[in-house]
Amino acid sequence: MKRGIFILAALLAWTLSPLTTDVQADNWNAFAPLKGELAISGGTAHIPVMKTLSTEIMKAAPAVRISIAGGGSGLGIKQVGEGIVTIGNSGRSPKPNEIKKYGLILHRWAVDGVAVAVHPDNPVRALTSDQLRAIYAGTLANWKELGGPDRAINLYTRDASSGTRSVFWKKALGKGEIHPRANFVKSNGAMKSALSGDPYGIGYLSVGHLDASVAGLAIDGTAPTLANVKSGAYPIARGLYSNTKGEATGLAKAFIDALYSPRGQEIIAAKGFIPVKG
């Protein structure tokens, strides 16, 4: 594998069809009298929830159109602050200077763990924090040193605008080094694709994105499960936010209220996150 290459994933974007799923009409009566367009961008971990919720809403309210784009937490914060979108998603709390600059109101609706993951064929299933930091610093560079195959460790990381990277860097690496040979990917989905195709890779992604195609690793003896994230036993975790410029109104308010509704909380849990009520 070439080192230092950038693995590019297309910006995730949808204009969702209102005809692709069963309607939950009883939950979305508030949208019936509304019409217009709602633009959302930012954190990629949010997208499965945004997509399902938006599809249901648009089926119940055909005069409403909702578009969703990824791009990372930094982009979501910037675009909502500049009025490009109405809701900017972030996998980290906006910084105090961002809140002040843009007049942001934060809406935290879920807690998400960030799992360290490898290809499922890799026999390594646990690391210590010291080992993880050494891997990303480049001083531990062969799987053989960890009980795996005699092959170089291929590093994967996210770009600087990623909320997932920010949480991983602070809580998993203790703000330690990420070696410049690490391969960059653009989203949680792209990270899963990269790791599922590389038997010697290691990276990190939302716990909500773990499935049979990747294997989450225990860190210091604690597995990246929803139960461990919820209890606080697994410490590499963050909030998921949908931010607005000032108080949410109109379609934006209705959408955020929908996230906190019983059906919204059900969708959040079904996508692998821990719902936060209000």
Instruction: Note the beta-strand portion.
Output: 15-25%
- CATH architecture title of the largest domain: 3-Layer(aba) Sandwich
Q: List the helices and strands in order.
A: EEHEHEHEEEHEHEHEEEHEHHE
What Rg is obtained from the alpha carbons, in whole angstroms?
19 Å
Q: Work out the count of structural domains.
A: 2
Domain PBP: 32-262
Organism: Desulfoluna butyratoxydans
Protein name: Pbp domain
Pfam families: PBP_like_2
Outline of the structure:
30% of the residues lie in helices and 24% in strands.
What's the SSE blueprint?
Elements: E1 13-15, E2 36-42, H1 47-60, E3 64-71, H2 73-81, E4 87-90, H3 96-102, E5 104-105, E6 108-118, E7 126-127, H4 129-137, E8 154-158, H5 163-172, E9 183-185, H6 188-196, E10 201-206, E11 215-216, E12 218-219, H7 226-231, E13 237-245, H8 250-260, H9 262-270, E14 274-275
Parallel strand pairs: 2-3, 2-4, 7-12, 8-9, 8-10
Antiparallel strand pairs: 1-3, 4-13, 5-13, 6-10, 6-11, 6-13, 6-14
Domain PBP: 32-262
Keywords: Signal
InterPro entries: PBP_domain (IPR024370), Phosphate_ABC_transporter (IPR050811)
